[in-house]
Request: fold
Amino acid sequence: MPKKWLLLLVFVIVSLSLMTYESNRQHLLPFKFLSSALNRFHETKTSLLNNISAPFHRMMLREEENVRLKTEIGKMLEEQYACREVFLENKHLREILALKEKERRYVTSARVIGRSSDQWSNTLILDKGTSSGIAKDMIAVTEKGLAGKISGVTDSYSYLLLVGDINFSVAVRLQENRAEGVVSGTGFRKCQLKYIPYEEEVKKDDIIITSGLDMLFPRGIPVGFVSSVNKKDIGFFQDIEVQPFVDTSKIEIVAIVRKE
Amino acid sequence: MIYLLWSVVFLFALVMQGSISLFDIMPNFTALVAFYAGIKYGDIRGLTIGAVIGIIEDSLSGAFIGPNLLSKGLVGYMSSFLYEKFFVWNPLLGTISVAMFTFADSLTVFLLRSIFDRMPVSAGTALLIIVVQALVNAPFGLFLKPGKQQA
Reply:
């Protein structure tokens, strides 16, 4: 038998004998010593590894904490927005309540649940209809002023024609010089004040209120203010642009009042 | 110097082995060291280095001494014959042989532990562990070339 194979055989036999011995008894003492010495090395190795990995571990923990805190901040912001929303709604309702107490023709208040689906009509859909006492041509106001009039109504819903709509008109008076005219919608943001004679002195920022002469709108409701005046050299009337007080894009709740 | 280098390589393998875990399965990098010792220096030195690696690993494992001693020694001894007598090294053969020797090493340790102590895990789990260890080690076969006298 070659020497190498003999060596291998001896190696295998010694190993198996060692294992047999150890399986029946305790570990061999010299190996126990080796084991404890190597365990110390193992401990050192683990300690070294921990020292190396600790900063990364801390970074990971910080990262996790960061993510958790960001999530919590997100939740808190959501809650804050919700609280703010409730606060603003409360403010709106208080204003509507004040309006209700002030306005003797008050019918009900209604919430805006929809808008006209196209760009070309300025109407809002309200969540109340005839069952709540709303009728066609009733007036919708907010705490800021005139919002529009009811153009159509069903049992549960009604349609509010806004001040800016091309089909909307209201008899008005300039608060300052008492000149009478008609405010009509232009279909886009601003309105037009018509029929103000050329000789009338109209200034920018003059306030416009309803006059009540159309037998439809109660008198004294704020409509808007003069944003620009263009005195033409020809014709009988001035070209006056009016900015409504009510921002129609931000209406949420309106108070419905009876017509004059 | 060469012994120092081998010690560093072995310690590095040991550290990496204890640090990496794939699906809760530790790799068997020390088998690679024993394998490389065999193909690099021949049977007797391969056996010696493998046995030393095995006995240290056994000691560190906290279990009884023997399974790794025998298996790593055998890997170191047998791997030397691979390119000395049977094959010429190429990357594919290197990959396959590393996987086979790792498989054999892990299987030997499992069997010896089962025989002389207790079965460490169920047979199915053991097979999974052994296969994963063999697959993890397999790519190293591309780089572990034998010494010139074996090629």
About this structure: The interface with chain A takes residues 11, 14-15, 18-19, 43-44, 47, 51, 55-56, 59-60, 62, 64-67, 69-70, 73-74, 77, 112, 115-117 of chain B (CB under 8 Å). Helices of chain B lie at 2-19, 29-41, 43-61, 67-86, 91-116, 123-137. The CA atoms of residues 39 and 80 of chain B lie 4 Å apart. Chain B has six helices and no strands.
